[in-house]
Fold these 2 entries.
Entry 1:
Amino acid sequence: MPNTTTSASEESRPRGSGRASYAGALLAVLLALILILFWLLPKDPLVRARLDAWLHAPPASRPAPDWASMRRSDPPAGFEMPNHGVGAAVRAAAGPLRVGCLVVSVGDCASCLSADVEGWERSARRRGLTTVFLTTGKPAAARQFRERFRVAAPFVVDPGGSLSTALNAAWNGRPYLFSRNWRLVWSEPDAAGQRDPFRDPAFQRAVERGADQ
């Protein structure tokens, strides 16, 4: 008769343990091969050159804005602040002008604005200019701007964006200088670095001429 007895060690061995051991050995071999490849590949000059190019590639840069194209819709010099609608509200908020008015279009996002509007307001006050901020946001957005930038100048809400469109407020924080007769005498040419308009010679000349226009 065939011997049908099995040893205790054979009975206690878990089924499938042989397959698990085999899979573990294959995984160990695969990991060893990967490590060898990572060690050998950089020694190849071509591979090393490509790896270096990939690791030290400069970050993708965004194209510079085309300021000239953005200015094509600018109002002409001498554009008169409208005497109706939002324009009339700007005039009323500014009151009688002694030298001129700095109108700053701030859009509807306080956290998106990087311009030093608080400093601009102080500089305008020293030169006898009145400052008015124009926002396309809701009145709550105007309060957020005031709290964030600690400015005292009035805010005028342009809910439909009609005046912002007429002024071509192509970027947030774009300043415009109006003479005391509410004629446009200067507008920021670009937003590169949101520079201080009071350092712009063209702006300074416009301020000097503003009271006469």
Note: The chain has two domains: 15-55, 73-210.
Entry 2:
Amino acid sequence: MKAAQGESLLSTHDVQYYYLAGRWLSSFHSSSCNNESEGVFLFGDYVASHLYIDIENKEVTVIDPGMHFGKIGQIEEDVSRFIVGLFQIRDFNISKLNERLLKFIDGYGIDALDYDVLTSFVKFRINRNLEKSINLEAGFKRFFSPYFWFIVSVIKYRLIKKHLEVILDGH
């Protein structure tokens, strides 16, 4: 299998890459369905660790689409997965998280997202990640690691929630 070209979105220090990640997902959703009321094709596992951006060749490579790839759903499902994925990285700088989210949402298109729907999907995704992690881990790690990241995700969400509301409802 050919290796993905470009720089991983997780390892970049350029927040503009988050704008490109939002644009890519928006383009994917736009090209997948003509009538938004029926929903769009979901990418499924759209997280920063699966994105590689090659500025030189002007390419975005996305790997490992996930089990729900192609499922019809709401755009906020994929966006919430991306947001919660950012909660679960080992970076605890909330202002940096806010900046990344703003760029991503700006790239996706603020007008396309519904704050209330997105909020419900973010809450669902945080809880779902806890359930999945408990089932995947073994031994002491089975309980410590999932609950640690659950608590971290809840705290990060509470810290950025107001900022997210202002971005989506107050633009």
Note: The first strand starts at residue 7 and ends at 8.
